[in-house]
Specification:
The complex is a heterotrimer of chains A (72), B (364) and C (334).
Chain A lengths: L4 E9 L2 E6 L2 E6 L11 E5 L2 E5 L2 H16 L2
Antiparallel strand pairs in A: 1-2, 1-4, 2-3, 4-5
Chain B lengths: L9 H14 L4 E5 L2 H9 L2 H4 L4 E5 L10 H11 L4 E5 L13 H6 L3 E4 L3 H10 L4 E6 L6 H13 L5 E5 L4 H11 L6 E4 L2 H6 L6 H6 L2 E4 L4 H17 L4 E3 L11 H10 E8 L3 E10 L8 H4 L15 H5 L23 H4 L4 H8 L6
Parallel strand pairs in B: 1-2, 1-7, 3-4, 3-5, 5-6, 7-8, 8-9
Antiparallel strand pairs in B: 10-11
Chain C lengths: L13 H15 L2 H4 L12 E9 L5 E2 L2 E2 H14 L4 E12 L4 H18 L2 E10 L7 E11 L15 E4 L5 H11 L2 E2 L11 H10 L3 E5 L5 H13 L2 E5 L7 H10 L13 E4 L4 H10 L7 E7 L6 E4 L5 E3 L13
Parallel strand pairs in C: 4-5, 10-13
Antiparallel strand pairs in C: 1-6, 2-3, 4-6, 7-11, 7-12, 9-11, 10-12, 13-14
Classes of the chains: A alpha+beta (72), B alpha/beta (364), C alpha+beta (334).
């Protein structure tokens, strides 16, 4: 049960945040990610951020993907 | 779309597929435990692209599909009470219970509303103080914390007419139950993606430790899944079984601590009834005593009557990974998305619906 | 005049007449309608195409249009898909008591603008008013008639292996525009409904090629449903290329968010054409020249294999079935 998509936090008001999903704006809850700040990407699941996305890890994964596919 | 498109790159995908073909020599039976993975695998045709020695099975990863008939009957009985508004995620509405469905109850005049978020249910309760608003709480550890947060919000905002029918279930216990049943012999497990974003990867350690099975936490885009398969193949070929995370941008080994804390504040572990499997101890969540004023089962007297399973429906053994929809006599004739017999055909993440909608030309 | 619609506005008495004389006729104004006889009388020669549709969209105002514009375009387009030149439309309103008359005026105006653009005339109408709660603000039914030029045979049963499948632009705009209004989604760059009359585009296509086999406007059920209908009616297979399918970025984002597949989301200003391979390039160029077809693309072809089924080659090279839409498009959550 996992439909969650990356969303960019544009502004925060209390525990609610306005996020951008590729040009679509939405109000969501940050109750589960209280440390998230403006500029963070979060995983959005049914109106709640369930985790912040680690951008450094994202880059590492892409790098890894490129490397291991070269080595074949 | 950032963090999505990069993981759909067809060129990288082709290379990764080639690599998997090259270094996978042993037979490998892999099972995923997440409806989102089932859909992604089918949607992108991943099974077709993998070598023949890799077999992909689907486990009980669809929360709608594993909801017991009798629990659905409870939801329908609640819908029929006066002054009740039932709020639910979309997929649950069409699932057939023993005699009816929430959709049928709605057509009969019951107030049943689809919501995108449990928070919407809290707002509906706030705006309809003369009614009781009951949210049908399904979902694994991805969703349970959101419901916990909603309960705390309702408590804080003094919304007293908001209730939960807690049908939440937990992943690691059902994974253990499936392995203990011994019906399927597995070499690797594709661990759920967003459940793990919440619970982390440590809870799966018992799998390599006690069962010698490879474990990798996967994301949902095609490259994520291929990377996961590649890492599983690595573990299988080298016989080094452990828990690894392929979905590193979304999952940390320790998970999301604030979310886990909220979940544990509001819920306690209890037994749960899994469709096709039966009662599994310590595999579900129910509201703690301090939060029982939000519990639908405590606060509403209902008598849904004895449950009844549709005959011929193979959802049970499909959910356990023992059969595929192609083994079911009803698949594609008596059981179709338009006239579903079992939940696996209704839920957009159910195996049967997925095979039906995205299967390749031969239906497989 | 009152500022809200009352039950009396539908009763046929003075208030009804007021409505006709002050809201409908001045805007829709044409000699046939202005007679206000019990039926519209006109001459129309040749083989006729006739269609009817009801519009129950909620909300009645959405980015890029409203129920009035939708009602006219929808019927104009249905007629156009058989190659007919749309001529005359009827417009029937079932109004919920309490609707603001100013809103009704806006809608009648939109219907009129759409009719003018399409070059059709609204010559018959009706108004009923129902109790509050018995209709969702406003329902509209239209019927339309047009002449099919002689020698034309466009039908879902005419697709042949080798034919090329062309779509006139991006998918899912209308469904997302309406749904976003309902779900309270906001867009940085608003996604308007693509609601538009396509009769001129069809006329231009028919001028370019005599080998147009099938035409359909993929409304409810989206492109996937329309193509499945062709595949079944013609007993052919259709093969699509996932990477060719045009979807607006914001629509893609909204679909990901709400759990929809753009292949199944409604369009109200797009057409899908199945044409002979010899004419495909010319037809594509013609569509792209039309103001509503700048993003037209070739998305697939008709094949001998898997008759009755639509199969899509994914960006990874695997193939999967594209089925018809089943039930209502409920958002995928879990």
């Amino acid at each position: 049960m996992c439909l969650a998509i990356p969303a960019l936090i544009k502004s925060i008001d209390g525990y609610m945040a306005e996020v951008d999903i590729d040009g679509v704006t939405r109000q969501i809850s940050l109750q589960l990610t209280p440390e998230a700040v403006v500029g963070d990407y979060v995983l959005l699941h049914t109106g709640y951020a369930i985790n912040t996305i680690d951008e450094a890890e994202a880059r590492e994964t892409l790098k890894l993907l490129k490397e291991i596919s070269e080595v074949s | 779309m950032k963090f999505v498109d990069e993981y759909r790159d067809p060129e990288l995908g082709q290379k990764l597929i080639k690599r998997i073909h090259q270094h996978s020599t042993r037979p490998a039976r892999l099972m995923e435990f997440c409806g989102g993975h089932t859909v992604s695998i089918f949607k992108h045709g991943i099974r077709q692209l993998l070598p023949d020695n890799i077999e992909m099975l689907s486990g009980p990863g669809c929360p709608v599909c594993v909801t017991a008939n009798t629990d659905l009957d409870k939801a329908i009985a609640l819908a029929r009470l006066p002054d009740v508004i039932i709020t639910s995620f979309g997929d649950m509405i069409r699932v057939p219970g023993s005699y009816s469905s929430l959709q049928q109850a709605k057509a009969e005049g019951c107030d049943v509303r689809v919501v995108y978020s449990v928070q919407d249910a809290v707002y509906i309760a706030r705006d309809n103080s003369d009614k009781s608003v009951i949210f049908i709480g399904i979902g694994f550890e991805t969703t349970a914390p959101t419901v916990a947060a909603a309960i705390l919000q309702a408590e804080q905002e003094k919304v007293h007419n908001f209730y939960i029918l807690s049908l939440h279930k937990l992943c690691p216990p059902i994974m253990k139950a499936i392995l203990d049943m011994g019906e399927v012999r597995l070499d690797g497990i594709i661990c759920p993606g967003h459940v793990s974003a919440v619970i982390g990867s440590y809870p799966y350690q018992f799998i390599p430790d006690n069962y010698n099975i490879a474990c990798v936490v996967s994301g949902f885009e095609p490259l994520d899944i291929l990377l996961c398969v590649d890492m599983l193949v690595d573990q299988i070929e080298t016989e080094q079984h452990k828990v690894e995370i392929a979905y590193r941008r979304g999952v940390k080994p320790e998970g999301n601590q604030p979310a886990l804390r909220l979940m544990k504040q509001v819920f306690e572990v209890s037994k749960a009834d899994w469709r096709g499997i039966g009662i599994v101890p310590a595999s579900g969540l129910s509201l703690k005593k301090e939060y029982r004023q939000f519990d639908a089962e405590t606060n509403f007297a209902i008598d849904p009557g004895p449950g009844r399973e549709a005959s011929g429906c193979l959802c049970g053994s499909i959910l356990r990974g023992v059969s595929t929809p192609l083994d079911c006599q009803l698949f594609r004739n008596k059981c179709t998305p338009e006239q579903p017999v079992g939940p696996c055909m209704v839920s957009s993440e159910g195996s049967c619906a997925t095979y039906y909608h995205y299967g390749d030309i031969d239906g497989g | 005049m009152e500022d809200r619609i009352l039950l009396a506005h539908g009763s046929g008495g003075k208030l009804s007449h007021d409505l006709i004389e002050k809201v409908f006729v001045p805007v829709l104004d044409n000699p046939i309608l202005n007679k206000l006889d019990d039926s519209a009388v006109f001459e129309l020669g040749g083989q006729l195409a006739f269609t009817t549709d009801s519009y129950v969209v909620s909300p009645i105002f959405f980015p890029g249009g409203d129920i009035g514009k939708l009602a006219v375009c929808g019927t104009v387009n249905d007629l156009s898909m058989s190659g007919a030149v749309p001529s005359y439309l009827s417009l029937s309103f079932i109004i919920e008591e309490g609707l603001l008359i100013a809103d009704l005026e806006k809608i009648v105006n939109s219907a009129h603008q759409a009719a003018v653009e399409a070059g059709v005339r609204i010559v018959a109408g009706d108004t009923k008013v129902v109790d509050r709660g018995s209709a969702d603000s406003l329902f509209i039914n239209t019927s339309g008639v047009g002449v099919v030029p002689p020698g034309l045979d466009i039908s879902g049963a005419n697709a042949r292996p080798g034919d090329i499948v062309i779509v006139s632009g991006t998918l899912g705009d209308h469904g997302i525009a309406v749904l976003s209004q309902r779900e309270g989604l906001k867009f940085q760059v608003p996604v308007p409904s693509d609601c538009a009359p396509l009769n001129r585009m069809v006329a231009e296509i028919l001028e370019t090629s005599a080998d147009i086999h099938c035409l359909r406007d993929p409304t409810r059920g989206g492109l996937a449903t329309a193509l499945n209908e062709f595949a079944r009616q013609s007993q052919v297979g259709i093969r699509l290329n996932e990477v060719s399918i045009p979807v607006n970025r914001a629509v893609q984002g909204a679909c990901e968010l709400l759990g929809f597949d753009p292949l199944y989301v409604a369009n109200e200003g797009k057409l899908v054409a199945v044409v002979s391979p010899y004419d495909a390039e010319k037809v594509l160029t013609t569509i792209r020249r039309n103001q509503y077809g700048h993003e037209a693309t070739i998305i697939g072809e008709v094949v001998n294999e898997h008759p009755g089924k639509v199969v899509m080659k994914t960006r990874f090279g695997a193939s999967r079935i594209v089925d018809v839409l089943v039930g209502e498009l409920l958002p995928r959550i879990c």
